[in-house]
Structure formats: C-alpha cells, structure tokens
DNA sequence: ATTAGGG
DNA sequence: CCCTAAT
C-alpha cells in the first residue's frame, strides 16, 4: 500500500513532527493539543503549604472536567500574615483555548464547580468561599461527605457511618469550631470581593451558630442525600461525572493542624468508588476512602451508554464500612468486572452515582478538597454548588467554619485563569470524522484530567516542588511574585489522584497498584493514538494512548512514544469526565495499567466488502475464522467477529431499501451477492460444512437462487 | 479460540 | 462494535 500521507497539525502553534509511519493504512493526523483549563481559584492563606495549594487546584481541575479553557493566569494574591485561611474560588471562564472544549450536556449549561478546600485549620470565621449563587445546599454541604446517589442502598450505610462519625467529631471538636475573628477583613490583605466580604460578615454574625456541632451533625446526613439525590438523574456517567471527591478525612481524632496528608483531593472514583484512594490519612479515615481510580472512572466515562446517564454526583465515599468492602470489590474487580459493569450500566451507576464527596470533615479537622458536586443531572447550577457554596450563603457551612478556625495568616489570592495542559498527541485516521476528532481530543483531554493529573506550581518559571513549604516561604504570597506564579497540569503517574499521593503522604490507595501503566503491546497499527507528554515529573504517565492496530502494522507510533518519555502508552480512554462532556465512550480496564477503549470505528470499504463477500461465497457463513484468514489476514483490525458482524450488517443492508442505507454506499451488485450467498449458505449449512472447499461450485450454486 | 446472536 | 454464552 502506499504510505499514507499524514497531516500534521499543531495546536497552539506547536507542530508535531510527523513520525514516520510504516503503516499504510489511513493517514494519520497528529495533533498536539495544548489545552488549558480555565478556571480561577483564589487561594487565601499564605500559610497554606504549597501542597495544599496544589491539592486545591488539582481538586478544582478534576471538578471541572467539563470545560477547559486555556491560559493560565494567576491573579493577584495577597498575603497577609497571620491568617490561615484558604479559600478557593473557581470560576469558569470561557477563554481562549486552542481547543475548545464544550460541554455536551444539554442540560445545564453552567455548572460551576467549586472546590474548596482546604484545609485550614484556622479559626477564622471568615473564610470566604465562593460567591456562587447557589447556596441552597450549603448548609448541608458544608459538611462533608456527601453521599450522593440516591439509589444505592449502600449509601445508607455510609450515611449512617458518616453520621456517627460526624457526630463524634463534632462532639469532640466543638471548640475548634469557634469562629474566630475575622481575619480576612481585618487582615488587610484580603482582596476578597465585596460579595465575599458580605459573606464574611454574615459568617461572623451567624457563623458561630452554625458551627455548633449539633447543627452540623444534623445537617450533614440529610444533606447529602438531598443534594445529590436531587438531581438524580440518571445519568451520570459514573465516573465521569465526578470524580472528584474530596477527601477529607474525618477523623475525629485528628488534631487540628492539618497535614498535607489530610488534604486529599480525590477525584475520580469510578464506579467503584471503592477503593479509596487516597489518602486517608493516617488515621483511620473513616470517612471516605477514596477510590483510587483513575481507571475506573475513565472507563465509566467512556462507556457511552452511561454517559447519558445522568449526573452523578458525587461519589460517596463511604467509610470503610460496608461500603468499602463493596467498593473494594468493585474496585478490584478485574477487567471483567468492569466490563460487565459496562454492560450493565445500571449497576454501575448505582455505585458510581455515589460519588463521594467528602468534604467533610467534621468541620473540624481537615478538609479535603471538596469538590463540588459533580454534575447534577440537570446540570443545574445549584446542584453543582451544593456543598461548598454554602459558604456564601451561609457562612456557617462547616467548611467555612473550619477554615475560619485557624485563619490568622494573611491570604494569598490567586486567580488562575487557565491551566496549561500537557501536550497531547493524537493520531487519527484521515477518514475519521470531525466528530470523531473532537471526541478523540476530548478523550485525550479527559483522560488526562480524569486520569489523574497533578498540578505544578511555577514561580517565575521555576517549578516549585516543595509541597510542604508554605506560600509565604515560597514567596508565592508576595504580591510581586504573583505575576510570576503559574500552574500547570501534569500527567500524574499514578492514576490515583495525583495530589493525593504527593509527597510522602503515607496514605496509600488500596487501589493503587503500583503498576504503572501497562504498555500497550503493540498493536501493529495504531489508529488513534493519544499520548501525553510525559511531564518532567518523575512519575509521568501517559494518559491515554489509544492504540489501534490497523492492517498495517506500523510501529510508527513508537516513535511518537519517544517523545513521551518512556511512557507506556496507555490506551486513552475517551473519557469524559464530566457528564456534560461525556460523550466519549471509553472503557478502561481496571487498573490503570490499561485503559480500554472502544475500538475506533472503521467502516468497511467497498473493497473490503468485496473481499468479504467473495470469501463468504466460497467459505460460507459460519467459518469466520477462515474468512478472516483468507481475506483479511493482513487486516489486523478486522477480527473474525468483525467480519461476522459485517456480514450480518451487509445482509441487513441488502434487505433494506437503498434510501435507508447509510454510510458509504455498497454497490448493489455486492449486496445482491450477499443475499445470494447468504441464502445459499443458509440452506446448505450442514452440507457445506462437509465440503466447504469448493468455491467454484458454490458460486455456481448460488447463482441460482435457491 | 470460535461461533452465534443480542445489544 | 461490544459482550455473552456456548462450543
């Protein structure tokens, strides 16, 4: 065959060198995509460790899978010493992006995510949260974990557990809850918007009350269900949707100062929510275990069927109790399990839906990053905001309170307009449709976002690696440095939530298997491939790599691979993390090692149909392996099952009116042959089996319609 | 690993 | 195309 010509496109001005490809198959297009995820966050608290900051940002990203936008910015930040409070605010902005990501949902357009998190132990009353409008859930939200899916019965258990814990925590923590002086306002540094200020004020006024443990306890349990359930929809792809969960540990035991460990950003869970991923910190984390998962989630996301499902909200992270076991089960489930899940979306959904949001902490201790609710089904904004938002409205939300506790430092406000997403390489056949291209890119993007990425903090162009340093120590809190502050998204080696694992956190995700990604064995040909550049970081992973083989075996990609570090290419699963996005089907295998993706669709060409028809005429139906060997031995991407399916569709096509046929028209002559051969072989099933070898004869026979 | 069928 | 069940 002729070498295909390849089109190389560079997004964002990057051109990807074409890799030599041996394949003859279709032309491949490479894209390098740099995506940016837009969002702004405000982080206040110079005291917050860099790690926390990262966690916060990461959490946000996860939440936002839906839309991404380009460009990063940081906006002003101020630090005020003394207050420890962190506020993160996110907003979406449409930005510029080289690739524009759009949400698929029709439902709601705007969704806002909030992540908030953080951790602080401050007493400040002021923590501000977001302005987001929806506050409805806030109160509830504040707390923590939310168990979302209504469906699951399991959830109940979880709730129970949670409640219990929460209560306990509350009980123990009352003191902590106090509202502190309003640091923000006072500390002059705060840049909070007016709205926030108001909030703060409100908080001051009300905060205390809210804080009371009793309240917390009450609210929490209820909330979750309410919020989450409210939007129940069906759809959510499991993972996609949410994925983020915050991991807040709720240990009652914990001491206040949070550690980095405490903060977890977890995001994806997949269906299985089970394995927790992260960090639970050292202590027992009762609450939530987060799943580790990138894979699962991706998978879920991918599964197209599921996509439609409504929102999922949050995974519930349950405590260890029953849930865990369950979750564990799923999590660990093997590939097969996953698959099965796919098939049975319902099941999955149940699990998935529960995305957990763990936000909670009992208000006390720590907080993980909470994410906002994933998507609500409807996409209502409100649903989205549920938890954290409360902040605004009620200052009282637990989270707020928590934050407030310790705040004493000055705050650093950051505005991140967008994140730069690592480069992605996408390879797609020329014959692919624009839609498929979009999907492919989406998959790549989502794979990255959902697959676990880490946030890198750049200060004056230098990577700030010391997660434990405070912003103050790092210099991030200095106004003059704000301009030099940048964030980047990097592939996270372990799928587990990147942030989670940072550093030394002791936590481990059960899920995590140490295994890195599995390499895709070579499929000879690659059809689509998406790879992510390895980031410099130590653990880089490649996110998705989707490899498909074509007839040609073109090792070619490997060359690309070079770019990627050694990356093992993962199969990229198209995942849309966000429901909204969702659209891409993806399947992943369990374990991050592999991501399974639905094979790309490769319509049969007329030539292939011809070959198939000819082979079937000779061999008959029912001997697909032989047909494959005879006519498609070189087409690795055509399996005997594919041939059988194609034959099935050909027969169907031949029987319907031409007007009803779609796709590349198949010559009527071939269709006639299909019908003839089909009829012939149908009749001679038994006989033919005996003498399959004589094509000629067969042909003669069929000519005469039986 | 194949085949047959349903989805 | 995927997935299963049955071979």
From TrEMBL:
Cellular compartment(s): Nucleus
HTH myb-type domain span: 597-655
Signal peptide: none
Listed SUPFAM superfamilies: Homeodomain-like (SSF46689), Ubiquitin-like (SSF54236)
Alphabetized SMART domains for the sequence: SANT (SM00717)
Region (Disordered), start-end ranges: 69-102, 223-245, 357-404
Top-level taxon of the source organism: Eukaryota
Cross-referenced Gene3D superfamilies: 1.10.246.220
Location of the Myb-like domain: 596-651
InterPro entries per UniProt: Homeodomain-like_sf (IPR009057), Myb_dom (IPR017930), SANT/Myb (IPR001005), TPR1-6-like_ubiquitin (IPR057625), TRP_plant (IPR031105), Ubiquitin-like_domsf (IPR029071)
Main location: nucleus
Keyword Cytoplasm: no
Ranges of compositional bias, category Polar residues: 69-79, 357-383
Keyword list, A-Z: DNA-binding, Nucleus
Any GO molecular function: telomeric DNA binding
Start-end of Basic and acidic residues biased regions: 86-102
Any one cellular-component term (Gene Ontology): nucleus
CDD domains in the cross-refs: SANT_TRF
Short name of any one Pfam family annotated for the protein: Ubiquitin_TPR1
Record's protein name: Telomere repeat-binding protein 5-like isoform X1
